Amino acid sequence: MELFERVAEPDDAAARRAVRPVVCYPVETLPQPDMALLLAARAGLTLVDEVIAPPRDGAAFRVPKGHFFRIVSVEGPQVGDMNLWNAEDLTERLFSGKTRALHATHVTTGNRLWSNLPHLRPMATITHDTLGWYGIDADGGSVHDVIGTRCDPYTNRLLSGDDYHRCCHSNLTRALAAATRLPMREAEGHVHDVVNVFMCTGFTRSTQQYFMKASPVRPGDYLELFAEIELLGAISACPGGDCSTTHSSDAAACHPLKIEVLRPADGALAGWVGPQRNGYRWPE
Fold first, then answer.
1. How many domains does the chain have?
2. Helix, strand or coil for residue 280?
3. Residue 178, in any domain of the structure
């Protein structure tokens, strides 16, 4: 017995499917980072801070405007869910949906992480990606996605009936609350969709369902970004480990992630000016 009524194809179904796709945004006009300047600045970086996100837990970090930061694999394959905020205004935060629309489902060197409306400006630019070689695999999978949300205790309870307190959403909330001294409930309202750093994901060809597979990350790999504005970040060392089997549980082997904050040499960014908030204004 079928649960849904089948809908017959119209006579022109093939023609409708054959129309030419159009890329939504004309990215040729998108403001581009000065990658030559950033590449030169990378040559003289000095480590100024280091933070560890323990397995199945989160950590917050701050990155001054004009500094670089790296998310580093240090012990074993591990993915991390990252949030970014304007350190001076938490209402400005990473807009993963617009980042995806302007760049791709997965980000890498040269792509930027954009902030939410009405700000809509680059918060950070990816300057180096040791997994940049991975590309798109035979399953349609790639790394560093901006399509997944984050594992959370609400969806976990919906699907399993269990309460699990080490989901990435929970870890990010605790990390932000500790960094800002906000009450947990207030901090939770600022947690948002993530960059799934090192996570290998895609959509199945048959059903277009979101999938994950074992991350190709290995100790020593890192994703490096340049802070375009004053940043407060948080990252969760996902309870799914390398996300090869499960998440939102204690079943997977998990490892810490390291965040390094690096200062460029004096004068290395001469002439660079950070991005302003978007110039659109509502008509009077």
1. 1
2. coil
3. yes
Expressed as residue numbers, the domain containing 246 is: 44-263
Does 276 map to a domain?
no
Residue 32 lies inside a defined structural domain of this protein: no
Contact assessment for residue 41 and residue 268, using Cβ atoms and an 8 Å cutoff: yes
Low-confidence residues of the chain: pLDDT under 70: 1
Cα separation, 267 vs 127, whole angstroms: 18
How confident is the model at residue 158, as a pLDDT? 96
What are the tens digits of pLDDT across the range 181-233? 999 999 999 999 999 999 999 999 999 999 999 999 999 999 999 999 999 99
DSSP string, 104-133: -SB--TT-EEEBPTTT--EEEEEEEETTTT
Nearest to 232 by CA among 172, 154, 186: 172
With a threshold of 0.90, does the pTM exceed it? yes
Tokens in use for 99?
Answer: 């980042």
Nearest to 247 by CA among 283, 212, 275, 217: 212
Q: What is the largest CA-CA distance in the chain?
A: 72
Q: Is 283 exposed, middle or buried (0-12, 13-18, 19+ CB in 10 A)?
A: exposed
Residue 98 resides in a domain = yes
